């Protein structure tokens, strides 16, 4: 999984939006061409976040990101790469790497965990 941190995404109508969109779409197309693309999702800004914690059995809900967060997560890509080297190569190709940082992290395989989204 590529976790995209600390890069500002221009909004439609902003200067640079079309260029950024073209670069991101070209990156996604290259990942599809390689057969590794599983999904990709930009996230809305951290101001839209709601943080949930449970302390001593009580659910606490706070508007905004966790107070101690120093960086913001802007989006994720999930790839099915052959190895870490391929994932790192793709992270370097990701257009957002020039603005922020890309964390590469394997998705954990947990025996017995059904990770498929339930659809009703």
Automatic annotation (TrEMBL):
Pfam families attached to this UniProt entry: YCII (PF03795)
Gene3D superfamilies (UniProt xref): Dimeric alpha+beta barrel
Record domain YCII-related: where: 16-107
InterPro entries attached to this UniProt entry: Dimeric_a/b-barrel, YCII
Similarity-based family: Belongs to the YciI family.
The name this protein goes by in its record: YciI family protein
Native source organism of the sequence: Amycolatopsis iheyensis
